[in-house]
Amino acid sequence: MKLCHLAEATLKDIQRRIPIFLQKHYRDTPPDKATKLIEQLASLDPTRGKYTEWIIQQHKNKTIRIPEDNEKITRLLKQFHQRKQQLPDKDIGNYTPGTLAKALDQIGASKRQLKKKGRAGKLTLPPGAKLVLDKPPYQIVKITDPKTATIICSGTEWCTANIETAEEYLEDGPLYVVYRGGERYALAHANSKQVMNVYDEGFKGKELVGLLKLLAEIDKGSLKYTESLLPGFSFWYAVESGIRVPEIESAIIEDPLQAYEYTKNVIKGRWPEAEPFIMKDLGLAYLYAKNVIKGRWPEAEPFIMKDSWMAYWYARFIIKGRWPEAEPLIMKTYPVEYAIYVIKGRWPEAEPTIMKDPDVFVRYKKYISSF
Questions:
Q1: Chain centroid to CA 226: how far?
Q2: How many domains, in total, are found in the chain?
Q3: Kind of pairing, strands 129-135 and 175-180?
C-alpha cells in the first residue's frame, strides 16, 4: 500500500487531502458523509497523516469500528511508530489491527508472557458475571457489569477493557465471553453483531458457524434469547456469508441501512418490499441505485433531488448526463462541479448565479476556459 505522508500535518493539510481520499476510497459514498468520516479517521492517526490512509483502508475493510476502536487504533499506531524497527515487517500496509497487535505482542519475552497470562486468566467470576454454559472444552460467561467487563477483558485487544466503551456496549445488551480450554477465546455481542477473537478480529466461516451454534445453547429454549440475541448474529452472518436468512427479513426490512446491506450482500438484486424504506435515506437511495439497480431509480428520484449534493452525484454517476429537473437546485450550490463533470462545458443558465460568488466564478472561469 502506498501511503500519503504528511509529516507533522495540520488540520488544513488533511483538509486539502480530503478530495484525494474521496476520489480514491469513497467514490460510492455520499461526499458529505465521506468527508465527515475521513475527518474522524484522520483524528486517530498519532502522526497526523502518516498512517491516515491505512486507517481509512482498515475501516473500509471493516477491521476498524468507530468510535469504540478509536483509543485502541491510536495506541497501536503509536507503538508501531516507536517500535517498527524491531519488527521483521516494517510496512504498515501489510498489517490489519489484529495482525499488528500480534506482531507487537511478540516483541519482548516478558511482555509476551504477561499478555499470554492475561488472556488465559482463571474462570473466577466477580459480581456482574455469570457462567451460562459449561460444555467442555467451552465455557460461556455472561457479563452485565462494566467494571466486571474491564476485569475479564483485560489483556486482550477487546475495546470493552475500557470502562466507558464497556458501558456503551452493555447499554445495548450483555456481553458473552467464550472460554476454550480455560483461555479466553471469543467475545460476542448481539446488538453490534460482533463475535471477535482476543486480537479483536472477527471470526469467519466454520469457526463463526460453530460459535453461533454454541451461543445458541445459552439458556436453551428461552424465547427471550432466541428473539433478541440470535437474530442479531444471524443478520451479521447473512451479510458476511451471503446466505439468505428469511426468518430475519421482517425484522430488518424497515431499517434502511440493514435493508440496503442485506440487499447488496445477500440478495444481490432488487428487494422491492424494502425499497420504500431504503429511499427514505438519500445517501442509501443513491447507493442502492448505483450498486443494486445499477441504473436510474425513478421512484426514488423525487427524494434524491431534494438534496443538491446527492442530486449532483446522481446525475454524474447514475444518469451520467444532465438531469434537468434537478438543475435549479444544483446550480445554487454545485454549479461548477456540474458544469465540469456532467455538462462538460459551459452552463449558461447557471452563470448569473455563479457570478454572484467571486471564488466560485474564478473556479468556473478557470475550468471552462480549458474546454
A1: 26
A2: 3
A3: unpaired
Residue 308 has which C-alpha cell?
443538491
C-alpha cell at 157: 485487544
What is the rounded distance in angstroms from the CA atom of residue 30 to the CA atom of residue 60? 14
- Is residue 158 located within the same domain as residue 53? no
Per residue in 206-241, pLDDT tens?
Answer: 687 678 778 877 755 443 333 444 555 667 667 777
Pair (82, 133) in one structural domain: no
In tens, the pLDDT along 238-274 reads 777 787 878 778 878 988 998 999 999 999 999 999 9
Mean pLDDT, the chain, whole residue set? 82
Q: Do 90 and 162 share a domain, yes or no?
A: no
Task: Kindly report the pTM of this predicted structure.
Answer: 0.49
Q: Are residues 103 and 135 in the same domain?
A: no
Q: How high is the pLDDT of residue 123? A: 63
Range of 82's domain? Answer: 11-107
What residues in the chain have per-residue pLDDT under 70? 1-16, 107-124, 205-206, 209, 219-234, 236-237, 370-371
Of all residues in the chain, the percent with pLDDT exceeding 70 is 85
Same domain, 156 and 50: no
The answer on 154 and 96 residing in a single domain is: no
Pair 161, 201 in one domain = yes
Query: Based on the domain organization, do 101 and 132 belong to the same domain?
Result: no
Whether 169 contacts 160, CB under 8 Å: yes
Contacts 24+ apart (CB under 8 A), 131-137: 132/176, 132/218, 132/219, 133/214, 133/217, 133/218, 135/214, 135/217, 137/180, 137/181
Q: Which of 52, 84, 107 is the last residue of a domain?
A: 107
Rounded Cα gap, residues 142 and 176, in angstroms: 5
